[in-house]
Amino acid sequence: MSQEELVTMISERAGMSRQTVLQVIETISDVWAEEILTSGELELDNIGTFLLDHRPGRRGVDTETHEIFVIPPSDYVSFMPSRELIDWSNRIQ
Q1: For the chain, which residues make up each domain, given as ranges?
Q2: Which residues contact 81 (CB under 8 A, 6 or more apart)?
Q3: Mapping DSSP to helix (H, G, I), strand (E, B) and coil, where does residue 48 land?
Q4: Which of 17, 29, 70, 81 has its CA 20 to 30 A from that of 87?
Q5: SS3 of 57, please?
Q6: Residue 91: what pLDDT?
Q7: Domain 41-93: which CATH class?
């Protein structure tokens, strides 16, 4: 589902304008991103937990030239679904 499809679906169900729904979705995503970056975690009941994890730097090897290079450290967001979400998805199948 694209963001445009999501906005259309919510605006039809809630009886709100597409522009209002788009602003709400953008605000929610901004708040979620801020929370994940500042606290390292965002827990949403019935959905799951988003965690900010860190990958340390390491050495890599080019498979063609066998040249060794450095892969820099990086942060990434992981998601752990809640038990309710897992149970719900299993019921649908």
Answers
A1: 1-39, 41-93
A2: 47, 48, 89
A3: strand
A4: 29
A5: coil
A6: 86
A7: few secondary structures
- Give the Cα separation of 83 and 80 in Å (integer): 9
Query: 27 burial class (0-12, 13-18, 19+ CB within 10 angstroms)?
Result: exposed
For the question of whether the overall pTM of this predicted structure is more than 0.90, the answer is no
Contact 41, 49 (CB under 8 A): yes
Residue 56 burial class via C-beta count within 10 angstroms: exposed 0-12, middle 13-18, buried 19 and up: exposed
Tokens, residue 44: 């949403």
pLDDT tens, position by position, 34-81? 999 999 999 999 899 999 999 999 999 999 999 999 999 999 999 999
